[in-house]
Amino acid sequence: MRRPRTGEAEGEDVSVTGIGVRQAVTLSAVVRRYGRGDGQVPALRGVDCAFARGSFTAVMGPSGSGKSTLLQCAAGLDRPTSGRVFIGDTDIGALSETELTELRRERIGFVFQSFNLMPSLTARKNVALPMRLAGRSPSRAQVDAALQQVGLADRGGHRPAELSGGQQQRVAIARALISSPDVLFADEPTGALDTTTGRAVLALLRSVVDHAGQTVVMVTHDPVAASWADRVLFLSDGAVHGELTGPTVASVSEHLARLGG
Ligand SMILES: Nc1ncnc2c1ncn2[C@@H]1O[C@H](COP(=O)(O)OP(=O)(O)OP(=O)(O)O)[C@@H](O)[C@H]1O
């Protein structure tokens, strides 16, 4: 079984000294409120956490606890109401929209539950699309290498409808990996998959960390999916409520039950 590697210690410190050196992503006192006045919803109430380079973390918690909001803020897809988010040592709140777009393109990959592939494009063209939209044409070899990494070297010419759900998600992961991002964020990547295909996607995320040294942060409701991670961070009501290193299905389920999730 996997175990957290050296340097990926329990209670990883969130202090400024670790930023950019050991941490791929750091959130400091992050608050995110939606809406205004009486209708305001505090989705995150002051979150401090960090994700070590080359680690796989699952983020869990009851529905509405702020998991997706945390991921969106960490990935620079949403801006916190207050607090700071660092990718490596870059404070992304200090970036202009153009700089943030550039940083997301170069250093961050995002995978969604619903794959979000273009139905009319082949797997190869889907994988190449973000780079093409950014005005760069990846080489055929680059695209094929990304498809190879997710075990779909022989499916490049297929359209999404000709692929299984698990294969479609692997194409989406190849699309996220083609720019060799430091961090891959995944929001319920196995939520729409059956157990077997979900396991293949989790094995792939695991190998992205173990073999490519990238950092994966995954939101999930599933204790089995979370048990593939090095660490589980629990959220409840917009705040961090504990973490587990070396999670097992049983320990994750027990912690979730205590949170009421
Ligand atoms: N765009 C939005 N506008 C208003 N409120 C929002 C918005 N997005 C999220 N919220 C609220 O913020 C809180 C946290 O939402 P979030 O989606 O981050 O939770 P979650 O833990 O990912 O939930 P789930 O497990 O159900 O997907 C919830 O109360 C939600 O209703």
From TrEMBL:
GO terms for cellular component: membrane protein complex; plasma membrane. The keyword Nucleotide-binding applies. It comes from the Bacteria. SMART domains: AAA (SM00382). Coiled coil: none annotated. Pfam families: ABC_tran. Residues 25-259 form the ABC transporter domain. GO terms for molecular function: ATP binding; ATP hydrolysis activity; transmembrane transporter activity. Keywords: ATP-binding, Nucleotide-binding, Transport. This is ABC transporter ATP-binding protein.
